[in-house]
Amino acid sequence: MIEFRHLRTLLALRDTGSLVEAAERVHLTQSALSHQLKDLEERLGCPLFLRKTRPVQFTRAGQRLLGLAEQILPQIRNAERDIARMAGGEQGRLHMAIECHSCFQWLMPTIDHFRDHWPEVEVDIPAGQHFDPLPALAREQLDLVITADPQPLPRIHYEPLFRYESLLAVARQHALADKRYVMPKDLEDQILITYPVEHSKLDVFTRFLEPAGVHPRETRTAELTMMMMQLVASERGVCALPNWALTEYLERDYVRACSLGRDGVWGTLYAAVRLDQMSQVWMSDFLRTARETSFAVLNGIRPAG
Which residues form the HTH lysR-type domain (predicted)? Predict the structure, then answer.
């Protein structure tokens, strides 16, 4: 009566707290997910969770199945890895570059988890790179690039990991601090702090300011997110960062955040991989691990379509 898909659905429901977000997580419509859960409850003869509660509250039967899911699903995943090794797909090289200054929050746990299960794969993030990562990937100098700026290159596949919202961080006492969202003109008289990358790679410019023909009064750069937050908190500028990068500072009430525009600016983070590498079992497992780890450690992200 109980299938693996049921266990994955229940975990998604617990982790997200709502039917809508759980449906996105397991790539189903809300109607299909509701039907799946209702069918399971009819098979078992008892409810698994209380409807119209947020976050979702599970019954004793639902909690029993959650415990089963936490026990069984990792064993299934490990068995799949073991069988892949038996098939001879355990060795390889995974040299990667990151076009994302704030990605280490989820990438490091991903790499640690991956190394534990694929010790034969050589994992490295080369330091002191003096080349463009995506062309280097095409030349086989790299094996994977984390990027939010996909470019059409031959033999390169962009695997979507998750969607995120860019938010504007401002000081608590800033004039914009109480706004739910800002418009481009609100930044005309502001100092905009960014990472030291080209403006063409920053959503705040390409998808918010430039389409409106607006330029900030001044721009300055900072290497570290922590330094950017200190500058923002001391009213020496504002900055736009992915929502997950701001979570800890918002929880501590260190800064405030506004959406960029009424609907917000949402981007997608990708893992760029050569097509010939996609058939490697360990590469598929790394991408899956990256996606699962992201949703486990980051707040505010959404599944990529």
Answer: 2-59
